[in-house]
Specification:
This protein is of the alpha/beta class and 240 residues long. It contains seven helices and eight strands, in the order E-H-E-H-E-H-E-H-E-H-H-E-H-E-E. It has a single domain, classed as NAD(P)-binding Rossmann-like Domain (Rossmann fold, 3-Layer(aba) Sandwich). Helix 1 packs across helix 7 and helix 4 runs parallel beside helix 6. The mean pLDDT is 97. The protein binds NADP nicotinamide-adenine-dinucleotide phosphate (NAP). The site of NADP nicotinamide-adenine-dinucleotide phosphate has 31 residues, from helix 1 and helix 4.
Length: 240
């Protein structure tokens, strides 16, 4: 589907994969709302995007702050009257590089869930009324294969317990939202950018953020006959 004039909000878009997804959507002609919790970082990203010709706008959005989420939804509603694309990209991994379940810190788990899970739900629910006003709403939940039990079973990859649990919850939420919204024009899918070198993993990933962002935009621009309730990575649809 063309992204021209699509109103798109990306959470955590001031850097990393979210920023590159904003660039890609902007290059496709979308209006890009750069969600960022920090005004200075968000406005700096907006300036860089505008310098490249993107119709970019800063939206203060800390996904863990109910007042910030409500204000962002109110602003989008008043300014644009609808939302076409929501990319739930903001995420943290406070256990990097590993946390075995036997040694997991419950506070780290709670912190991770506040952003990756509760934040995603809060943002999605606040913006859903505006997505319902779109002729073709798309919700992209940025997830990870680390949240798919079948993918991890038997793996020798070191556990990152809270992060994996949070992305497993994101995957389940993707299915639940897709089921709830089936029969509407809104599609809800999860995606994984792959192992990307960003601040979340202290730069040790193997892909660039530019490369990782491609799948976010592919899922954000699915055609009407595209899937809903699935997990997509670089190789296609991954079984839950
Ligand atoms: N990198 C990978 O290999 C990889 C693999 C699979 C999935 N992912 C997922 O991809 C997404 C983007 O991660 P990334 O790799 O691009 O990491 P990143 O460079 O660390 O970017 C994370 C973004 O999330 C924002 N953020 C964190 N907490 C937030 C909050 N409470 N409210 C609003 N924004 C918040 C950050 O903002 P600040 O600048 O203010 O901190 C930043 O903009 C995450 O969901 C991550 O789990 C990444």
């Amino acid at each position: 589907m063309t992204a021209t004039s699509r109103i798109s909000l990306i959470t955590g878009a001031n850097k990393g994969i979210g920023y590159e997804a904003a660039r890609r959507l902007g290059a496709l002609g979308a209006t890009v709302l750069v969600g960022a919790r920090d005004r200075a970082r968000g406005e700096s990203a907006v300036k860089a995007l505008r310098d490249e010709g993107t119709d970019a706008h800063f939206v203060q959005l800390d996904v863990t702050d109910p007042a910030s989420v409500a204000a962002a939804a109110r602003h989008v509603g008043e300014r644009y009257g609808r939302l076409d694309i929501l990319v739930n990209n903001a995420g943290v991994n406070v256990e990097w590089p590993a946390a075995q379940p036997s040694e997991v810190c419950l506070d780290a788990l709670r912190t991770t869930f506040e952003t990756n899970v509760y934040g995603l739900i809060a943002v999605t629910n606040a913006l859903l009324p505006l997505l319902r006003r779109s002729s073709a709403g798309r919700i992209v939940n940025v997830s990870s294969e680390m949240g798919i039990p079948a993918w991890l079973a038997g793996s020798e990859i070191p556990a990152i317990t809270g992060y994996s649990l949070s992305k497993a919850a994101v995957n389940m939420l993707t299915v639940l939202y897709a089921n709830e919204l089936r029969g509407t024009s809104i599609k809800v899918n999860a995606c994984s950018p792959g192992f990307v070198a960003t601040d979340i993993n202290h730069g040790v990933g193997v892909l660039t953020a530019v490369e990782g962002s491609a799948v976010e935009v592919r899922v954000a621009t699915l055609d009407a006959d595209g899937p809903t309730g699935v997990f997509i990575n670089d190789g296609g649809t991954v079984a839950w």
